[in-house]
Amino acid sequence: MLDNMSPGDIAKVYEELVRRGLRGRVVLGASGRINEDNVMEYARYVDVVSIGALTHGYKSINMSMDLIRRISNTILLFCYHAFQRLFSKNTYSNPEKAQGRNFTVPKYVIL
Questions:
Q1: Which end of the chain has the smaller Cβ count within 10 Å, N or C?
Q2: What separation, in Å, do the N-terminal and C-terminal C-alpha atoms of the chain show?
Q3: Alpha carbon distance 13, 26 (integer Å)
Q4: Could you say which of 54, 75, 92 is where a domain stops?
Q5: CA–CA dist 30, 35 (Å, integer)
Q6: Are residue 47 and residue 68 in the same domain, yes or no?
Q7: What H or E segment, with its residue span, contains residue 64?
Q8: Cβ distance 32 to 41 under 8 Å?
Q9: pLDDT per residue over 71-108, tens digit each?
């Protein structure tokens, strides 16, 4: 990430990477002081352009807790089913079928 650099300075970094044969091995990004008027000057030399001005002056909403809760539940459900598949051949929830084995598939996952 090339932050708060002029298009000329970014061009120098770009040219040095090309000279060393490294340009194809890195992703270049530019941010800071970039707006709708000068974005094309930066875009010539980088793969990613970050324009903070697009979000300035807008009110944000907090959705983080809802997203975290949904992701956590999805991960827990995935882990539960993966655990069931992993141990299903040697795991029995019915004591009559257990034939001396003490393994059971958990019925609930508690955080």
A1: C
A2: 38
A3: 12
A4: 54
A5: 11
A6: no
A7: helix 64-87
A8: no
A9: 777 777 777 777 776 665 554 455 555 555 554 545 55
What does the CA dihedral 39, 43, 45, 51 come to, rounded to 10 degrees? 60
Question: pTM for this structure?
Answer: 0.51
CATH of the domain at 22: 3.20.20.70
Domain count, the chain: 2
Contacts of 104 (CB under 8 A, 6+ apart): 91, 92, 93
Same domain, yes or no: 80 and 37: no
- Retrieve residue 109's tokens: 């996952």
When computed from its CA atoms, the radius of gyration of the chain, rounded to whole angstroms, is 27
Q: What is the spatial distance between Cα 72 and Cα 65, in angstroms, rounded to a whole number?
A: 10
